[in-house]
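Structure ticket #2291
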Amino acid sequence: MKTLPEASFYQIGLVLLGYLHKYVCEGPSMNPTLEDGEVVLVDKNARIEIGDIVVARHPFEIGTEVVKRVERINDREHYFLVGDNPQFSTDSRDYGAVTKEYIIGKAVARSF
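Resolution: structure written out below.
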């Protein structure tokens, strides 16, 4: 299972310049990898692979974003997203795979 490294000074600089974006994890769905309230840095242009942690728009709850892990990608570029803590995660097991348009970006580091 891929983990996220601590953000480097360089990556924090990229946030200030607008190349990376900060998102706050809410809830227990990504425990133990990410705790409630942890901040992740997201690259909106990164290539997404199986095992990556991504931020995505929720397919049914308008204005809601989720932090999940990519479990699989099918030929039509549908992403099956799951939380690392399945007992406390609403994810693709509930709402199905999402298309690439729902993916905001790849989490590349954890921050403060």
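Closing remark: The two ends are 22 Å apart (CA to CA).
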